[in-house]
Amino acid sequence: MYLLCVYRIIGSSCPRLVYAMHSSTLPSLSALQSFEAAARLGSFSKAALERNLTHSAVSRHIQAVEYWCGEILFQRNGPKVDLLPAGQILSQRLGTSLQALRLALNLDALSGAQQPLKVYMLSSLAHNWFIGQLHAFSTACPQISLSLETGYEMVSLPPQSPAVAIRYGHFGRTGLRCHRLWFDHMVVVAAPAWLEQYGEQSEQWPAHQFLRHTHEPWPIRLPKSGLAKASKLPEASGHEFNDALLLVEAASQGCGIAWVRASLVQRFVKAGHLRVLVQAEQMSEKSVWLVCREDMADLPQVRDFCLWAVMAAKKFCVSADLAKDEH
């Protein structure tokens, strides 16, 4: 019955398709899901990978939907596919209908049972921000049971699964709903004991004392700001870290000087373990983002977590003197 409602919704929104629909050979729900995935990802191969099917199975599903509609829905361009006008109409309505079906079948939300949610994030964000907010989250959303996974590789959010990611970088990809939590700026920090030995002027800093982050290289020249005057920097040759928080910890232990995100050093600075020498004049081009799949955004646990995280991030921005997203 519910699937029939999906078909009626599609037909009512696509009058130019209704004439050609073959009501006796309705495509399966699996075929419609393959169409939705291919339309969203722009590739039959990616749709097959997401749905754990073979490429030929997805192709057959698409053919079944096209036969039912009596229209060619995709323009094939080698490994890439683009939606034709009829496919665009169908995709717009089908995404909403399938999401409604997922919500209708979300028995955990209806029964009052714990709602599981997977959260992927960088270890540095988990330590520096999220763990400190965990008790407040549990109080605000006691119905959600979190599974937290940290890592450095960009993880694709699994299909048809309640999951979100909190990452640092650039986002805005097709099929994702992205919330910018805060902007960040870069700072130069060092421990007081290190400064006593090497001084506060950048021309006095040895290259082997420049601690490095794998994905945030030192700039060629520092801005004229804080205690250090503007000057060209030597090529950094100090220890390298792929974890930004470990880099900050190393700097706080006097192992060198670091170029890091301001949001990661606030508590070290307040505790007197680090001093900020230089602050970048402009915000970093990267931001901290909360990301979920568009087709899972209205699941209760995903929706409630996102609402809570946006509010928690605003409070963090105020306490850490960071710029939040106003949009």
TrEMBL record:
Q: Which residues form the HTH lysR-type domain?
A: 27-84
Q: Which InterPro entries match?
A: LysR-type_TF_proteobact-type (IPR058163), LysR_HTH_N (IPR000847), LysR_subst-bd (IPR005119), WH-like_DNA-bd_sf (IPR036388), WH_DNA-bd_sf (IPR036390)
Is the keyword rRNA-binding in the record?
Answer: no
Provide the GO biological process annotations.
Answer: DNA-templated transcription
Drop me one GO molecular function for this one: DNA-binding transcription factor activity
Q: Name one Pfam family in it.
A: HTH_1
Keywords carried by this UniProt record: DNA-binding, Transcription, Transcription regulation
Q: Which family does it belong to?
A: Belongs to the LysR transcriptional regulatory family.
UniProt-recorded name of the protein: LysR family transcriptional regulator
